[in-house]
Amino acid sequence: MTKLVMLLPILKFEELERRTAQECESIAREGVQVQVVSLEEGPASIECEYDVVAAEPGILRAVKDAEKSGADACMISCFGDPGIDAAREVAGIPIIGAAETSMHLASMLGQRFSIITVLPQVKPRMWNRARIYGLACKIASIRDIQMPVLELDKNWKKIEQRLFEESKTAIERDGAQVITLGCTGMVGMAASLQRDLWEASYRVPVIDPVHAMIKYAEGLIDMKLSYSRITYPLPPAKKR
């Protein structure tokens, strides 16, 4: 049995945990178990750099706990990829980020892609991560639906409509050829968005970051690959 941990780097949010677990179960192949966990200490959501810093200590503890529990990989379920570099240093298992995985996948499915996220204030971090990943030149646009993370469960139809409108604009105005959701709180919405776009004659793929992370994790485990210790060396032993 392969064990994956899907880490929600926020305080416990039962409805999001439920939806995430449901999607993980539906996409993981037979023989792969996905455990969804949240932080004991940290922010209620991640929507700015202050939230990222508040989440990182809990992320590092959770990653260490995942490895000790026998997990084969740990996925950080936030499109800001908080704490990912430090987590890769402290862990001996693959630590997978939502933005990094989704952006690279999107870049292989078309020449230019757009990210549809929650709020304007999360965009600077996404651009910064895209530059780190060498993919900023492939981004047609980063658009938002003007909806806080903690509001995503309150009006599903309204969110679906906003996702469609922003995706349509990204395709028509910005030249996007691929769409990726830019918040893992939107888990489960990619399939309906892709269907709606195709029905409107916009035949573009739509990426769900949670799905992308699971499939990438399965592939790394199958190939017995993990992250370079030259890039992510073990932290030196010293007082901290």
Automatic annotation (TrEMBL):
Molecular-function annotations in GO: amino-acid racemase activity
InterPro entries: Asp/Glu/hydantoin_racemase, Hydantoin_racemase-like, Iso_Racemase_Enz_sf
Gene3D superfamilies in the record: 3.40.50.12500
Pfam families: Asp_Glu_race
Family statement drawn from the similarity comment of this UniProt entry: Belongs to the HyuE racemase family.
Name under which the protein is recorded: Hydrogenase expression protein HupH
